[in-house]
Design a protein that fits this description.
The complex is a heterodimer of chains A (765) and B (270). With 765 residues, chain A is α/β, with parallel strands linked by helices. Chain A is built from 29 helices and 19 strands. Chain A is globular. About 7% of the residues of chain A have low confidence. Chain B folds into 2 domains: 170 residues, P-loop containing nucleotide triphosphate hydrolases (Rossmann fold); 88 residues. Classes of the chains: A alpha/beta (765), B alpha/beta (270). The structure holds adenosine-5'-diphosphate (ADP) and magnesium ion. The site of adenosine-5'-diphosphate (ADP) has 17 residues of chain B, from helix 2, helix 7 and helix 9.
Chain lengths: 765, 270
């Protein structure tokens, strides 16, 4: 292509996207310098870059000549793809430096030299883990493979192999092994000589050779994990054989090892499928076979009691060598379990279970006013559990004869009901599960849990609950919603309060200004939206319908008279091709929208309203913000029934930044409102500038997961949720929250007003 | 309506349907039937509700009339309406009316999908009045003792939204259906698809993995039905991986990330 062709291509392709003359000239000159055979491809890539970042577009064209010196043109599209990925994950600067160092960043990776990055596969691994276990276990990068029962640490990159499919398999194998440790509860001692779920290190330190004991313990647990994996994941175990063998081959040659070390290494290698029994010196060989014999008796059903017993047997066998023993090098998938932090997690879980049990039991007690659950931080006050614990409440433990100190409360041994003042209260399934977990952990339910439950209730009744409401004249209604807690995989019941609030219409010329500013855009929108209008039509001669088709009836009557078989198609049906669409626009009014963003959102809403008025689709606009779980505010800017008039325009103009972004409650509430409509298609469009986040612990994964769950609920109810965001980091979490195709990222705030109606149009045609 | 001439025999189930109870659903339903109380079957799709109704109908030797509800289903569709036949307006019974007249078992599948106005006829039929007003026809039918109403619904997520109204649900005896315990589910899968127990067991493992995924974004895990589909494909010599991909993974999601994760689970089993 020559200069003129390129520039005319650019102006044609990017006309609607605001590429100005100056940019067109600049790009044309840059493209012209590239090999003509690549012009088409480059222009094609430009289409991908342009909507994402103009700056990146320029950099791309500047760097392309150098890059094309480093690799053949058939790699160009991969290079572009990786650049875009870098931009999306790490931003413009990173993308630029990625493009600069083609050799290290691209060629090496292309050749597989950099291996597989954990971050590129962590979502997949997490989901895989989620499938294996109904508990939430996450992978994280760490210096040594290990697990603490809640997290699995993996190397940040995997370069065992040249090809990344095999590297992924290696990750998957490690993750599966670590999962098996978790599933087998390898991190916790379950032995009569120790308190329930103790730290295995307690046991190691009781023996004369803690180091050797620790390794033997790990060896036995690995064997047990292997048994579990063979049973549960036969496909993986088949696939992993190759990996096992290459691990075996990459271990340092064992011949220099001595005594117990040699025997243990031989056992480890056997586990990988490599038998070196014949190389062992005679005495070691005998012991080796005895060790193998002992390890044969494992089944995944056993617990660590059995492991401790086996380790004791092994210790006796290997005692003669114990003093020279050197810590073994663990296998890559074996790592070293982090017993210490497993204990910390356990005690945190115990605390949480305790709080849950207390809250749940408290909620069971009679005459419960319908109030939101007590905040967890209040439950944490040290006084309540201490004051009462133990001495005035009875707890029934299985088959244990305790005389009631105070005959008020007792818990049935099957955990299915609780007796308060001789009245049986059924325990809901969810609470039973919590109690069962506690019982599994300790072997019984500590009585302070129940007494505290009682205490909580007492507090709630005397002091009332929730913070003071700020119910000024703007308050319209109060609603209570559950909140999804991904950590427990269940709802926090009645956790949030949402207030419907009025927003004061204001008098400004904001609307007029906007209409003026976007005059051209509006003309286009009007035309486009008019074309979407389809009217109702009547279908004649139907078998059934809303009205009798007189023509057909008369014909049929005359047919009958004439002795012919009359038609049965005598009805007129009103075919409603008409648009039955109801939309809620849910607008982020958090303080981060201050300035630019808020203005762009308002402009977008005005253009949207103007367009929708043409179409006649029903729509409502709500703004949301709030602070903490007990005050989510939903500002009613326009209800479905309100006409778009001066007052509504004034309300849109009044939209402004308020507080935080707790997204769950407004989504749930907007969904509820949408579901009250009869529309066939119910659309929930959220416009936001960032992640959900509140002042309390509504942050990070928790906030994302709750928002996501609220969206899933909406979806299950037949609503189509869609999100328009201008958050730069949106990619990280949006797809997870809204689903791959249910959100759009607008990189330039200025484009928001323009794009919103367009998006609506594509969504509803 | 095409149901007009449906005969008693046509809806009788003469062969014993294969059904494995997972709890006390059979004695409870029999007792409810005896006492004229309607049934509410709750549970995700494909976990044996329809099959159970067939089994119940067979045991009770009553015809079974099933209506799959959808959002356009109106009272007229259930009760009946006038049609013009041979120049005359002729009343045509809807499935519910037919079931009442015949003393059959009437099963409304996915009741929450039906239009809200259908509760007008469900309520009087479901409580102890057991009556069905044919408003247009000016007739009031009283259900004979042999008649039974059963409805199903899928609570799905803990959705506040698509819920059965308490006033409706409180008229029913409710049975929860969920995925059978692994060993039983494997037996069902192997029976229905004629596949070996071992493969059936592995399929059930995959099923259970997908059911764990609801907080990773899969709204519903694989149902028994999907596992049976996969098993049938395997039985027709499709490789287990391909069978699981087509019958399970692709069926459950369109999301690529999720699909990959599901396939990782499949490949760790087969
Ligand atoms: N308990 C069971 N006994 C026998 N087959 C079952 C059972 N549960 C599920 N199935 C099988 O699963 C399939 C789907 O069940 P179905 O009754 O159609 O589900 P639902 O009506 O709950 O959506 C049935 O065709 C049957 O093969
Ligand atoms: Mg069904």
């Amino acid at each position: 292509m020559n200069n003129k062709e390129i520039s005319s291509f650019l102006s044609k392709t990017f006309a609607a996207d605001f590429m100005d003359e100056w940019e067109i000239t600049e790009y044309t000159n840059l493209i012209e310098q590239l090999p003509p055979s690549l012009h088409h491809e480059i222009l094609h890539h430009l289409k991908a870059f342009w909507p994402i970042s103009h700056a990146l577009c320029t950099s791309f064209l500047e760097q392309a000549p150098h890059a094309l010196n480093c690799f053949t043109p058939n790699h160009l599209s991969t290079w572009v793809k990786m650049t875009l990925e870098t931009y999306e994950t790490h931003g413009l600067a990173a993308a630029r430096s990625f493009m600069l160092d083609v050799e290290n960043n691209f060629i090496c990776r292309l050749k597989g030299k950099n291996g597989l990055q954990l971050q590129t596969v962590s979502i997949k691994l997490n989901r895989y883990l989620n499938g294996l276990s109904n508990k939430s276990i996450k992978v994280k990068s760490g210096s040594q493979v290990s697990t603490n029962s809640e997290q699995i640490l993996l190397p940040g990159e995997m370069k065992l192999y040249k090809d990344n499919d095999r590297n992924f398999l290696a990750y998957k194998t490690i993750v599966s092994f670590q999962w098996a440790f978790i599933a087998n509860k390898s991190c916790f001692l379950d032995h009569p000589a120790f308190p329930s779920n103790s730290n295995p290190i307690l046991f190691f330190n009781q023996t004369p050779y803690p180091q050797l004991t620790a390794d033997l313990y790990l060896l036995v647990e690995t064997q047990r994990a292997l048994v579990l994996l063979r049973q549960e994941l036969p496909g993986l175990m088949k696939e992993a054989k190759g990996i096992f063998l290459s691990i075996a081959d990459s271990r340092p040659a064992p011949d220099h090892l001595k005594g117990a070390n040699y025997i243990i290494e031989a056992v480890q290698l056997l586990l990988l499928g490599k038998n070196i029994a014949n190389h062992l010196p005679p005495t070691e060989q005998v012991l080796y076979y005895q060790v193998i014999e002992i390890l044969k008796n494992l089944s995944p059903k056993q617990n660590t009691t059995n492991t401790v017993n086996l380790v004791n047997q092994l210790l006796i066998l290997l005692q003669p060598y114990a003093s020279d023993y050197q810590t073994m090098i663990p296998l890559p998938f074996q790592g070293r379990p982090d017993y210490e932090s497993a204990q910390i997690i356990l005690s945190a879980q115990r605390d949480k279970a305790k709080q849950q049990a207390i809250t749940a039991l408290g909620a069971l007690l009679p005459q419960i006013p319908a109030s939101p659950a007590k905040p967890e931080d209040e439950e944490d006050k040290p006084d309540s559990s201490q004051k009462l614990s133990g001495d005035n409440v009875l707890l029934i433990q299985p088959k244990q004869e305790t005389k009631p100190v105070e005959n008020r409360i007792s818990l049935d041994t099957t955990l299915s009901f609780i007796t308060v003042d001789e009245m049986n209260i059924e325990i809901p399934k969810a609470t039973q599960d919590i109690l069962q977990e506690i019982k599994n952990d300790f072997g019984y339910i500590p009585e302070s849990y129940i007494s505290s439950g009682l205490q909580i209730k007492g507090n709630a009744q005397t002091s009332g609950s929730g913070p003071p409401l700020r119910d000024g004249p703007e308050l319209i209604g109060k609603f209570i919603y559950d909140e999804w807690d991904y950590r427990r995989g269940g709802n926090r019941k009645n956790w949030c309060q949402l207030f419907e609030k009025n927003i004061q219409s204001i008098k400004t010329n904001f609307v007029e200004q906007t209409l003026d500013k976007y005059h051209g855009v509006l003309m286009r929108l009007r035309r486009q939206f008019e074309m979407m209008l389809v009217s109702e039509r009547f279908l004649k001669r139907q078998r059934d319908g809303d009205n009798i088709d007189l023509d057909a009836l008369i014909e049929s009557l005359s047919d009958t008279r004439a002795g012919l078989a009359p038609s049965e198609r005598l009805f007129i049906k009103l075919q409603r091709d008409e648009r039955s669409i109801c939309t809620v626009f849910l607008v982020d009014m958090s303080n981060s929208t201050e300035g630019w963003v808020s203005k762009a959102i308002k402009e977008a809403l005005i253009l949207m309203c103007e367009s929708l008025e043409i179409l006649g689709d029903s729509y409502a606009i709500y703004g949301f913000s709030g602070m903490r779980r007990l005050r989510s505010d939903l500002y009613l800017i326009k209800e479905f029934s309100h006409p778009y008039n001066q007052e509504i325009k004034g309300k849109i103009s009044a939209i402004g930044p308020k507080e935080y972004t707790r997204m769950g409650p407004p989504i749930r509430h907007a969904s509820r409102k949408l579901l009250q409509t009869d529309a066939k298609i119910k659309l929930l469009v959220t416009i936001t500038d960032g992640k959900p986040e509140d002042y309390d612990d509504y942050k990070g994964d928790y906030a994302i997961e709750d928002t996501r769950h609220a969206l899933i609920e909406a979806k299950m109810a037949g609503i189509h949720p869609f999100c328009i965001t201008i958050d730069q980091k949106a990619k990280d979490y949006m797809a997870h929250m809204f689903g791959e195709i249910n959100y759009i990222f607008i990189n330039d705030v200025a484009k928001l007003p323009n794009r919103v109606p367009e998006i609506y149009r594509t969504l509803t045609t | 309506m095409q149901h007009k001439h449906i005969s008693f025999e046509k809806h009788l189930i003469d062969q014993e349907p294969f059904y494995r109870p997972t709890g006390v659903e059979i004695p409870i339903s029999m007792a409810a039937y005896e006492k004229g109380i309607p049934l509410l079957l709750k549970g995700p799709t494909g976990c044996g509700k329809t099959r159970f109704m067939q089994y119940l109908a067979w045991t009770l030797k009553r015809p079974l009339i099933t209506v799959s509800c959808h959002d356009d289903l109106s009272t007229g569709d259930l009760v009946g309406r006038y049609l013009i036949k041979n120049g005359e307006a002729v009343w045509s019974d809807g499935p519910v009316t037919m079931a009442v007249r015949a003393g059959a078992i009437c099963y409304l599948d996915e009741i929450v999908e039906a239009r809200k106005d259908t509760t007008v006829i469900i309520h009087p039929l479901a409580d102890d009045r057991r009556e069905l007003p044919l408003e247009k026809k000016g007739e009031l039918l009283i259900a004979p003792p042999q008649f039974m109403l059963a409805v199903s619904y899928n609570p799905g997520y803990q959705s506040i939204l698509k819920d059965l109204k308490p006033s409706t649900r409180q008229r029913f005896v409710s049975l929860e259906f969920s995925y059978p315990p692994p060993a039983l589910e494997a037996t069902i899968v192997s029976q229905e698809s004629d596949i070996d127990e071992k493969t059936a067991n592995l399929l059930v493992k995959i099923g259970n993995m997908t059911r764990n995924l609801n907080d990773s974004g899969l709204s519903e895990g694989a149902s028994t039905r999907l596992l049976i589909h996969a098993a049938k494909l395997i039985r027709s010599n499709i490789t287990p991986r391909d069978a699981c991909k087509a019958a399970i993974a692709e069926t459950l999601t369109d999301d690529h990330e999720m699909l990959e994760a599901l396939m990782e689970m499949v490949t760790s089993i087969f």
